[in-house]
Each structure stands twice: as structure tokens, then as C-alpha cells.
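Repro:
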Amino acid sequence: MRQTASTPEAGEGRLLARPGRPTEATAPGLYPLGLDRDRDAILYVPAGYRPERPAPFVLSLHGAGGDEEGGLYPLRDLADEAGLILLSPASRRQTWDVIRGGFGPDVAFVDQALTIAFARCAVDPAFLAIGGFSDGASYALSLGITNGDLFGHVMAFSPGFAAPAARHGDPRFFVSHGVGDEVLPIDPTSRRVVPQLERAGYDVTYREFDGPHTVPPEIAREGVDWFLAEPSPADATPASAATPTS
């Protein structure tokens, strides 16, 4: 099913795409999806991918002013070694819709990109994550909480906030932030968001590091190791009804 920005699902931040048996054969490589001439989505299939062995998958989101190529940061260099399929869509404008006022066109575009990726690749639903850096991390938190019945893992590298529309499922979280961050200072961002997630009953792994607004290689690797260490619970529903807010 293809959404538009006017559908109730997109306006509520809900993604409809789900992994299943691929209907197309895809070899390892980097593939533009051809959904938009100027701001597209990229699918990266790692070396060693075999369709008979469902692989871990990360929807990876860029920061403000970024595009589909920027969204591959910071996981691209680890993808082959870890066997990660990466999907990086570009936001419809300079940054993600919820940051500009509410869910809608970016949710619809992400859902289109996911539908194509799931048709091309065998994805392990127990290792399906959403992640991002900076504004992409804020969007990953927001979409991840809203779609925790799809994403069992959320990786937020230097986020600003979480603004979910609702709470579904029970995803686990990895959050990192530099104590010297001058773009999104740590005190009003991660040091606020992480306790909100914990009070809501989520399992959160939090790492602070001595550095600016970036993702050091060792932090990216720790995030990937955390992601692959434990499968997500199937159809888990959290006991608490509390929802983190921005």
C-alpha cells in the first residue's frame, strides 16, 4: 500500500510496511530507489548478503540539511563487517516533518522506501532497527516509539528530543551524546530524554563521550554491537502507558 501525506496513518506517524519474503533478487551493492529525482532514498546491501539468510536491517536517518547519502553515516563503514542492510531516505525538506510541526510527508516517503527495501531484501524482523544522527536521531526516537511494533531497536546518536505521536511495542534504545556538543548541548537534550525513556519503562543503554557533535567510530561500533547482541521481543507490549514527550 502506498501512502500519501494526507492519509491518517502518515499523519499519525504510523508505518505500514513489514518485512516478508522478497519478491525480487538483489545482489550486494548501493542502490538509489528512484522515488524522487532530487531527494531520493538509498538501499545498501552488504557484501556477503544471501537471500536465504535474513539479515539485520537499519533505517538510518540523516541530520538537518542532509540527504540520502548523509543518512548512511555513521554505520556505512561497519555495514559489511556486521552484515547490515541500510536504508537511508532523504527528508522532503531540509529536516524531518515532525521537527517542522507534525508527522506527514516524511512518514509516507519512508513507508514507500521500506516497502521497496522489504520487497528486495530478506530482513530478520528480530533485528530491525531505526537509527540516526542529530535531527535524524530525534526523528528515530519519535518514529521508533510510535512504531515500536516494527522497530525492536532504536539507535539515537546525539538526539535533540523525542516527539512520538503514540506508543506501540516495546523497543530497546541506544543513545549516545558528546559532552562537548555545541550544536545540541547535552543537558537539555539527551540528559533530559534518557530519563524520560527510563521512566516510561524502556530498556535504555546510554553513552556519553568526551567530544563534540559527532559519532566517534568506537561509539558507532558499540551501537552496532548492542543492536546485534539481543533480538527484539516479538509483539511485546509495554506495561506502562506513559509516553516520553519533547
